Each structure stands twice: as C-alpha cells, then as structure tokens.
Amino acid sequence: MRGYILRRLLELVPTMMVIVVASFALVRLAPGSPFASEKQISPQVRAALEAKYGFDKPLAEQFVRYLGRIMQGDLGPSTKYPQRSVNEIIADGFPVTLTLGAVALVWALLIGITAGIIGAVRQNTVWDHAAMAAALIGISIPSFVLGPVLVLVVSLRWHLLPPAGWGDWRHVILPGLTLGTIYAASIARLTRGGMLEVVRSDFIRTARAKGLPERLVIWRHMLKGGLLPVVSYLGPAIASILTGSIVVEKIFNIPGIGPYFVDAAFNRDYFLVMGIVLIDAALLLVMNLVVDVVYTLLDPRIEYS
Amino acid sequence: MALAALFSGCSRPDHGYFGTIKPVHGPNEIWINNSTEPEWIDPSTCSDSAGGEIIWNIFAGLVQAHPATLEPCPDIATHWDISEDGRTYTFHLRPSEWSDGTPLTAHDFVYSFRRLVDPKTASKYASNGHVLQGGVAISAGKAAPETLGVRAIDDLTLEVKLTDPVPYFMSLLTFYSFMPIPQHLMESLAAKGIAPELWVRPEYVVCNGPYRMTEWRFRQHMIFAKNPRYWDAANVRLDRVRLAMVENETTALAMYAAGEFDWPGHNSALPFEFMDYVEEFKDFRRHSELRSYFYWINTKRPPLDNPLLRRALSRAVNRTALMTHITRGEQTPTASLAPNGLAGYRGLDLPLFDPDEARRLLAEAGYASGADVPPITLTYNTSEGHKQVAEAIQQMWKQELGITVELENLEWNVFLQKAAQTDFQICRMGWSADYEDPFNFLEILSGASGNNHSNWKSPEYDRLVLEANRELDPAVRLEKLRQAEAVALAEQPLIPIYIGTSSQLIKPYVRGMWANQLVRHPWKYLWIDEAFDPAKPPTADPPPPNPRASP
Amino acid sequence: MTTRDESRQAVASPAATELVVGSSLWQDAWKRLRKNHVAVASGWVLVFLAAACIIGPSMVAATWGYDYETQDLAYGPRPPSWEHPFGTDFFGRDLLTRVLYGCRVSLSVGFLAAILAATIGTVYGAVSSYAGGMIDSVMMRVVDILYALPYMFLVIILVTIAGKSLLLVFTALGAVGWLLTARVVRGQVMSLKSQDFILAAQSLGTRPGGIVFRHLIPNALGPVIVTFTLTVPAMILQEAFLSFLGLGVQAPRPSLGALINDGAHQMLVFWWTLLFPGGVMALMLMALNFLGDGVRDALDPRMNH
Fold first, then answer.
1. Measured between CB atoms, which of C153, C186, C281 is closest to A26?
2. Potential cystine with C177: which of A160, A232, C117, C253 (Cβ 3.0-4.6 Å)?
3. What is the pTM of this model?
4. Can you give the three-state secondary structure of B461-476, one letter per residue?
5. In 3D, which of A164, A156, A175 has the Cα closest to residue A107?
6. What is the pLDDT of residues A106-144, one digit of tens each?
7. Residues of B in contact with A38 (CB under 8 A)
8. Residue C232 Rama label (left phi>0; alpha psi -120 to 50; beta)
9. Residue among B273, B324, B395 whose CB faces C266 most closely
10. Please, what sign has the CA dihedral across residues B486, B487, B490, B495?
11. Model confidence over A211-268: pLDDT tens digits?
C-alpha cells in the first residue's frame, strides 16, 4: 500500500504537466483577447498592453516563461483585475470555496447516507418510498431554482438568515444547503442501491446465519458495500462541487473562485484561468488518490498491483 | 405576483416601500452597491463604469459636474479664462492638498494629462486626450509626452491648448480621465520597486477627493472614509461609505429589501420582467439616461448593401410596442441617434414605426416579398435583455415584412472582436454618453472613428461635422450637426431603437440626489435622513447652489 | 416451472423430451421487468412524452392555431387559462407548444448524450479496472486530465467553429459526461473482479472481452443506472447553459432546459413559466428513475422474484 501511494504521488508530476500543456494550448487557441473593449483602442495602446504582459512573444516562449513562473510559485498577473495578482485572488477565494464545499459535502453525506440507509433497510416500505421521493425531488430541482426560493422563504419572509454575502456562520447555511442538496439526493440513491446489492450477497447471509444482530449486519457489512459507489462518486463529486459552486456563489454573492471558471474564460484572463485550472487539478488528483485508498479500506478484496 | 410579494417582506405593515425603511447602519454612513469589481481605479487607465464611479468620489478634478444640471462648476479650479479663438484655456487653481498633506499643484495636472495620452500607460481612454494639442501624435508614438499642449505657468495656474475650439471641452473635463495624479507617490513607489498598478490600494493610495479608500476586500466590499484634506470637506456630510460588489440582479434586489444597500448604485439594471411589479413601490425612481441602444448594419455585405432594404428594416420595428411590452422601462423610442433636447439639440423627427412605408421600401428595393430576401443574421452578445429585444424584433421583421432573420448569440469577447472587424450583418450595440453633447453620439458615424462598425463613410458627413466642431456659435453648430445626422440616417447605417432610462429603487431616507441624464450622484452630497417618516414623506431637497457663484 | 426444473425433467425422462430452450440473461430480465408495474408505467410515461413532443405541436396548432414563435406582445404573459393550458410567456407565445417543442431538443440531445456518455463511460471504466496495473493507471489519469481542463474554452472554441451545429453540442456535452460513469464503474468493477464468479469464468477460459461484457458490466449496472439518471438532468440543464452561450439551439427555438432557465429568472413574477417546464422535466426524471430501478432489479439474478 505504501508503495502504491508513493507511486501515485510520483504520477502527479507527469499528469500535472500534461494538464498544464493541454490547458495552455486550449486557452490560447480560443479567439478573443483580454483587451477587448467596447470603445475602440488604438493599435499603439493594444501593442503596449500586450507587451506589458508578454503576449507579443511567440507562444512557445510564453509557455516556457510561464513554467518558470509557476516553478517559483508565482501564478502571474490578472489582466482583468490589474491591481491584484493571481496568487492573491486565489488565496482570497479558494478558502471560501473550500468552506462552502465542505459545508455542502457534510450536509450531502449526512442526509444522503442516512436516507440511503433508511431506504435500503426498510426496502419497499413507506419510509423507502418517502426517502427516494425526496431524493428524486432533490435531483429535479436545479440550484438556480432552489437557491432563490430558499432566500425568499428563509431570508425575506422569516428573516432568519441573510440573503447573500459572506462573513460569519449565518452566511454559509443557505448556500451550503442549496449546493449540497443535489449531491445529497445522488448519494442517497447510490447508498441505497449499493446496500441493496450487498444485502443479497453470500457473506450477509453468512453473517445473519452466524446470528449476528441486525444492527451489526448493517453497520459492519452492508454499509461498507453501500459506500463503495458513494466513494467512487465522491471523487468527481468534490471536483464538481467546485464547478457547481459557480451558480451558487453567483446567486449568494460569495467571494469564492467558482465564478472565475466562467468569468475568467470570458475575460480571457489567461493567467487567472491557468491558475484556477492548476489548483482545481491538484485538488482533483489528490482527492482521487484518497478515494482509491479508501476503496481498499471498504472492501478488503480489492488490491492494487 | 404572490411570490413577488414575499420579496418586499409582507410580514411588515404595508407602507408601500420595497423592504426596510430604516437604515440598518448608523446615520453617518451609506451602503451602496457598485455591481462589480472595478477594473481600474486609476484616472488615466480607467475605462469601466465601476472604476469610474469610485474615481469620481476619491479624486477631484479641475471642474465637477453640478449634481442636478450637470453644468461644469469649479472644483480644484476656481475660475478659468477662455481665449478668443476658443483654443486656449487658462485655469486658476485654489491652494489644496493631497490626502497625505503634500500640496496639490498644476504640475500634478500636467503629469496626469501627459500620462493619459502616453502610449506606455496603455490607457483605453487615451482618445479623451486627443482634443489636446499634440495628443494624437503622442498616442501614435510619434511625439514625446512632453509635447502635449498643457503646461503649468506656475504652481496654481494651468494652461491648456486645444487643436480645435471644442465647444464641449469644459463638460469633457468633468470626466475622470482628467483628474490629477500624485506624481510624488508614483515616483516614490517606482523608487521602491513596487509595481505602479498597485498605487490605488489602501496601503499606498494618495488622493484629493471627498473620500479615500481605507479597506478593500476583493469582491466583498470597499470602505471609504471622509478625507479631511479635501478642500470642501466641510460640506461633505457622510463620514463613511461602504461599497459592495453584487452582480446578480435578483440577489441585489433581495439585499436591498433586507436593507443591506441603501442604493443599488449607478450600474444596476432591473430585469425587464420585474419592472411592472417594482414600479408600484414608493421608493422607485425613474428618469431618462443618456444611453443609446441601436443595431449597427454592415453596409458592405449583401443584401444589406442596399440602403432601401436597410430603411425598410428600420421602419418595420415597432419601437413603441418594444418599450411597452419588452423593455418596460418607459425608455424613449427613437429612430434617430442623438437625443432630442440634449444641450439644446433639436433631434431628427423620424417615424417610430411605419409598416406600410417599410413594405413600400422593400418593394422599391427590388423584392417582391420578404421571402425573397437572402438570409440575414442578427448578432448580439450573451445577455437575457439583449436576447429578449432581439427575439421581439426578429418576429416583427417576420410579421411585417416576411423576412426571416436568424439570431446569433456570442459571448462578450468574441462579440467585441466581430464587431470591431465588422464581421456581422446586423449587430447590437449600445453607447453611453460621457459628456452632454450630441457630438458624443454622432462621432461614431465619422469615417475615421474607430467606433464606426458599419463600413459606412460619407465625405459630406465628415465635412459637416468638422465644420460644426470649428463653429463658435452654438446654435449654428447644432444646426450643422443636425444636417450631418440627416445625411447619415438617410442611408441608415444603423437602426436606432431607444434612448435609455434609469429605473432604480432608492431608499427613501437617502437624500442629496437629483435626477440627471448621466446618472451621476456624487457621494459628497448624500446624507441619511434619520427623521424619515413614511406617513409624512419629505419634499425633495433643493439642489445646491451653482458653486460658480462663490469665489 | 423454472428452467432448472425443466432441465431436470428433461434429464429424468429423455423420451418425453422436447428441445429445452434455455433463456438468456437478457430474456429473463425482460420477463422480470414486465412484471414490475411501476417500471412499466414509467416506461409508458416516457413513451407518451416522446410521442407528445413529436405530434403534440401539430395537435396544438390544429386546435388553437399556435406555433412556437408567433408573438403577441400586447397579450403578454398570462397564467394558465382555457385558451392557453400552460399560460403564455413574456412574448405572449403559447407555453404548451413551446414546452412540447422544447422536449424534442432536450430528449434528443440531452437524453442521447447521456446514453452515449453512459455507454462510453461504462466500457472505459470496466476495461480500465479489469486490466489493472499500469493500464488502469494511465486510463484513469486520462480521465483526471480531461476533468481538469478548462471546459469553458472548449465551449468557446466550438461556438466559434459552428455555433448552431447540434453535432458540436453533442461533442461539448459528451466530452465530460462520460467521466463520472467511468469512475463509478471502475470502483464497482474493482470489487467485483476478485469475486468467485469471475474466478470461475477465468478458469473456464473465458476471454477477457467476454468477462468484461458478459459478467462484469451486467453486475456493475446498478450504479451505472443511478449515475445515468443523474446525468440526464445534468445534460438537459447543461444544454440550456450552452445554448445561452450561443452553442446549439438559438432563440426563438426553445429547449426544455432553456425554458426552465428563463422560468427561473421570472419565477417571482410569472410562476407558470417555471412550473410547467420544470414539472415536465421532473416527471421525465421520475419516470426515468423508476424505470432505471426496475431495469437494475430485473437484471440482478440474485434478487428474489
């Protein structure tokens, strides 16, 4: 196992390299310019702007310079927000998104796994149907509908929580709920499905035949089997919480990095785009490694060569 | 409607206002939404309205626009002389200081004006400085910035020379591009090796206006405190301004209802669907705004190279219906470009909707029916509002003329590229006035203008405009501009649609605002009325005296 | 009689033997599915929706004379009535016609894209996991890389190439849609491949292809189906987002996702513009989920039927 983890960590380097090269190419291939403006600017001004950021040099040279930059931990300047560097922008926004994501994830796991367990253990009873119906509703309501509705009711009608913004714990609740509900619904269905697959297998029958109390059967055996698809789902789910937070952060005006995925692309803010791609990729790769390790904990039959 | 009623917190007694009516903060501050993070807060390089809104309140230029009449009034300059030929302006400055105590001199204005046109600054608004003598050459890199027609005769006297006698120059000077820059700060930062872009950050900034920035939390808020060294600080009422950056319109509405803003700010735009609902409230205010909405036509690409077809398209747009049912903001529908009444301008009187004439023009253009017209594409940039207007007009052309037009939706960056290269057939555009003069609109039709995206040029138009701008008699000048516009619109290089309005909700306890067409409400006049009582709403404040009256 | 009984009988009395027809896994599954009433009902709902969107618009046109694009600005948006069962939208257009028409795009593009994504993802994940070792590593790193690339730029480039092309919408949707399924299936297969029935098949000499397609994939279908039912709404809403950016169906042609998007903006003042498109999508998703559950149950040989 230790060898495996080491190997995976070493694999991070070539993977990140491929990501950097591919993203750089994709980003620069797109038409448009960071200096597009409605009122026309003269060619001299445009040339001065491009020289300032090094965009007038050949692409290969720009790439090499960029590599040099990131080796030193400098992600470059932002063309859209010239008074801030990309490092600062990400340092400001990333922890915010992580917090929001963590709250959403905790909510999703708590509600989702609980609902899934209820559904599996009380299969085909009214509890099962209620839990799965709630899950279906959760999947059917997109976040840009759920968010404003929550704000309307909880914030404007009942005055319990602030409608938007970021500052203290009260600001996290509504956006966390909005973001997490879709994942809760998916996790509920995956848990239930996974547990049901396991419930019919031999080792459950053996455990029951051995006379193990039902609760132990559930917790020790069924749940592990049920969690396997959830864990597979969690890897990319965490990554998509980052992108899912785009909509939620815009609705609740949260200063995270979510909106940059779209806005920085529209602004052709090359350095900022590359910066968030790198952070996102690093997070994703690490999470996938964690997920793969957790697999082996859940199912001892799995081993890595 | 029931859902929308929840918005205004109908658990409270119905006082007819949208949300709270008592400020959630103290009486000495105001909370404003600036809609978005500014791109630049630097007078020379700023070209976005979010940055401009801030610059107007932390810097003070030679003149300021009167908050009600928009007339140029003294700010740093106490009075000025204009030469006979209208080309030389001499400004007499009052003694004043920067926020760090350094005296402000005419040299700071010289430094700033040079910096504006210097190609090394890479300012997108360098063109504002092209009315100055030598400005064009410097921006083109053909002359040194020192050759600009501006010099400090002494510490408190500034002389400015123009290439032509620009009649709206004083109005232009109220624009933020012409505010002074603290040369001493820029030099000291350069000496310390700090990047010049960072000079506006709270830890470094030195300014001379009514407020200065004390805190900047990126994408959350900015805090401004009253600047005691501003020359008119005694008349600045609020101690503190908190600026938020909320882009989402619905979120902003919700926050306004909860009292988290007092004013949604200069840049806010209510979605069309909400207009009818929001208009009912007592804190709703609307007035006209100098913002034009039109469609450029590429006059070189068939079938639109035929002016008869272009005019047919323009006549077939039912502008009044658009305003009533789509944009719903009581905008002024218009078939001409420069707004009627602007600085005394008598606008062209063209029909807003004439379907019979449109059909006649179509036939005259050689088409038996609209179905014979080759495919046309209407391009707009990604936005709910633009899409709605385009969809409506697309249907109007189908219903009135039988012409099928395809819609093309491009995101902003690609859209701007295509617009700049005139790679379209019909393309949506807007134009906001920077100063109050019809030429600010008509200049986009000039042959040499970089903002003319229609491939249409007319030597006669350019001649008339040139003559107009050399004309010293304002009435004659306006008449010449009108003739020029008539020449242009006879060939229909664009389809004007409306002149905008500003529709906003503003808390009733915010005072010190007067409706004006550039929607400029300087913070220094604002104050919070603690005694506001919904049962007895106060009458409007009288506008401040024109400071020109005082020495 | 089960097939086992039939076989026993055939062995016991060879004289009275007719040819015993064994039934395959899929035939058994189909029989079981037909007995699941909820799943069958859901299937019919989906068929009905598909039929409605094909012939519905012409029926509405025949009854009332509406089409999806004729506006009546003076009439404007109005709640449901006898003239307009779903009400009218902001431009006075009949919402029923637009919803039916919009289903065409969403069902064809969104649905198909989800099926394609599920198929590619399943095969990819199963192959990667069964192959194990270096191949698994490389294949999964490819998945990670694709996940990390800045999606917006792909969209921008595609819009520039040919904004209206449905094929490109497919490409944009499909490019990332299969990644989640691949990960989920890989996880499932990892725990399946060390089980006895796989060892048995291997010792029988079944080729790897046979093992993957006839043994591993059918048993991993549970989470695949659940993930599929999550991918479909994601695709529909994603298609709306792409259309909003200029890729795919453009105004005035409606798509279900775009209608929901518009409705969400207007829900505070014109609630019916969200309720009906959203309701149709929710109905479609529920039917899909129940059908999916039924398919999963039917395919599982170990369930008690």
1. C153
2. C117
3. 0.87
4. HHHHHHHHHHCCCHHH
5. A175
6. 999 999 988 888 888 777 778 888 888 888 888 778 888
7. 416, 429-430
8. alpha
9. B273
10. negative
11. 777 777 667 777 777 787 788 778 777 777 776 788 899 889 899 988 888 888 888 9
Residue B423 burial by Cβ neighbours in a 10 Å radius (0-12, 13-18, 19+): middle
CA distance B273 to chain C (A): 7
Burial classification of residue C283, based on how many CB atoms lie within 10 Å of its CB (0-12 exposed, 13-18 middle, 19 or more buried): middle
Q: Look up the CATH number of domain C38-64+90-303.
A: 1.10.3720.10
DSSP label of B48 = S
Element (H, E) at B527: strand B527-528
- Cβ neighbours around B447 below 10 Å, total: 12
Q: Do B254 and A159 touch (CB under 8 A)?
A: no
| DSSP β-ladder status, B426-432 and B494-505 | unpaired
Q: Touching check for C152 and chain B: CB below 8 Å?
A: no
Q: Are B240 and B28 in contact (CB under 8 A)?
A: yes
Both tokens of C48, joined, read 């009905």
Task: Name the band, by pLDDT with cuts 50, 70 and 90, for residue B6.
Answer: low
Question: Stretch C148-175: mean pLDDT, rounded?
Answer: 83
Percentage of the residues of chain A whose pLDDT score is greater than 70: 96
Residue A140: which of C184, C187, C233 has the nearest Cβ?
A: C233
Query: Lowest-confidence range among B184-188, B298-302, B305-309, C4-8?
Result: C4-8
Q: With contacts defined as CB-CB under 8 Å, which chain C residues touch B253? A: none
pLDDT at B305 (0 to 100): 92
**Amino acid occupying residue C120:** I
Determine the pLDDT at residue B158: 95
Q: B48 and B124 in contact (C-beta within 8 Å)?
A: no
Q: Does B41 touch chain A (CB under 8 A)?
A: yes
| Residue C217 pLDDT > 80 | no
Q: Which residues of A touch B245 (CB under 8 A)?
A: 253
Whole-angstrom distance, CA of residue B102 vs CA of residue C54: 76
Residue C281 to residue A193, Cβ atoms within 8 A: no
Contacts of A140 in chain C (CB under 8 A): 233, 278, 281-282, 285-286
Whole-angstrom distance, CA of residue A170 vs CA of residue A166: 9
Q: Give mean pLDDT, residues B395-421.
A: 90
**Count, residues in chain B:** 551
Is C153 within 8 Å of A30 (Cβ atoms)? yes
